[in-house]
Amino acid sequence: MMSAEFSVTFDDAVWYAANRDAPTCTLAQLGTFSERVGQREFQLVGREPRNTGDWCYDARVFLDEDRILLEISANPASIELDLSFQLEWVRRHTRIAVIDEDGAPWNW
User: Fold this and answer.
1) For the chain, which ranges sit under pLDDT 70?
2) Tell me, what's the pLDDT at 73?
3) Residue 108, in any domain of the structure
4) In terms of DSSP bridges, do strands 33-37 and 41-44 run parallel, antiparallel, or are they unpaired?
5) Which end of the chain, N or C, is more open, meaning fewer C-beta atoms within 10 Å of its C-beta?
6) Can you give the CATH number for the domain in which 80 is found?
7) How far apart are CA 5 and CA 60, in angstroms?
8) Does 85 reside within a domain?
């Protein structure tokens, strides 16, 4: 199984530096939230039925020093909906860009 990675970058790096912990509350309240690993990693699991042998998470969110990294291993609708909600929450506070692993802008 291959994963896709997206970086969420901030037009206002000062806002993210000052509010790096702010997304933790909304991430932990997502319906797909499964586990927090350390201070900066959040694992999400889709609410759809799972197959035997599936990974223990469908997506991971990392709150890095200068960006948010999204690692998507599986893309059930509940994961896409919750990640869209999380990105919209961030957009209400500051301007962001979502970029795929090839550096191309992603319309998410």
Assistant:
1) 1-2
2) 93
3) no
4) antiparallel
5) N
6) 3.30.310
7) 10
8) yes
